[in-house]
Amino acid sequence: MSIQYTVAMSAENNRALIENFYTAFQNKDGQTMADSYAADATFYDPVFENLKGVEVGAMWKMLLERSTDLKIEFSDVQADESTGSARWVATYPFSKTGRTIVNKIQAKFVFENGKIKDHKDSFSLWKWARMALGASGLFLGWSGAVQGKIRKEAQGGLKLWMKRKRIQ
Fold first, then answer.
1. For a 10 Å CB count at each end of the chain, is N or C smaller?
2. What angle do CA 114, 67, 27 make, to 5 degrees?
3. Contact predicate 34/61, CB 8 Å
4. Where are the beta strands (DSSP E) in 19-99?
5. What is the pLDDT, as a whole number, of residue 96?
């Protein structure tokens, strides 16, 4: 009976971890978001591919620092003793064009020792490019060249931000 209780508590703790993570996101609390990850965590999404360790928390801090008028909603939070998931929506103006982004994202998590070990966000980069770039995103946002440029700019921006903040 105590084993079942431990597993249930672990699942509930992991669910609470996801909820606290997105609540921190809503509150623009990048430190709490960063603290949710294991030291050797990994993160993947269609833009920031294959981030590791301190890069993961730094990405959230950078995005929050640069965001204006950001609105975060989350739902469908689920977790067991080792994995979890959530749906979330980020609504914000894209800084380069002023166009409104409504990005619908599916998140998957792997937990270890009460922290997020692996985090994968899935969304359509083509849909994002259409919202961010307008007609050029509609007609070219599906292409590897445009998506590669989006990734390169975002990842380069993170590296520069980390350098400025002296995060290694």
1. N
2. 45
3. yes
4. 37-44, 51-52, 71-79, 83-93
5. 84
Q: How many CB atoms lie within 10 A of CB 164?
A: 9
**How far are the Cα atoms of 2, 93, 136, 144 from residue 147, in angstroms, in the given order?**
50, 19, 12, 5
Beta bridge partners of 91: 71, 102
Query: For the stretch 70-84, what's the b/e string if a residue is b when 16 or more beta carbons lie within 10 angstroms of its beta carbon?
Result: bebebeebebeeeeb
Query: What strands, in cross-sheet order, belong to the sheet with 115-122?
Result: 51-52, 37-44, 115-122, 100-112, 83-93, 71-79
For 66-118, write each residue's pLDDT tens digit: 998 999 999 999 999 999 999 999 999 998 888 999 999 999 999 999 999 99
> 67 with 92: CB under 8 angstroms?
yes
Is this model's pTM higher than 0.85 or not?
A: yes
What is the helix (H) or strand (E) element at residue 65, kind and residue range?
helix 54-66
Q: Which two tokens stand for residue 80?
A: 């067991």
CA distances, 131 to each of 11, 14, 37, 112 (Å):
36, 33, 30, 36
Q: How far is CA 76 from its chain centroid?
A: 16
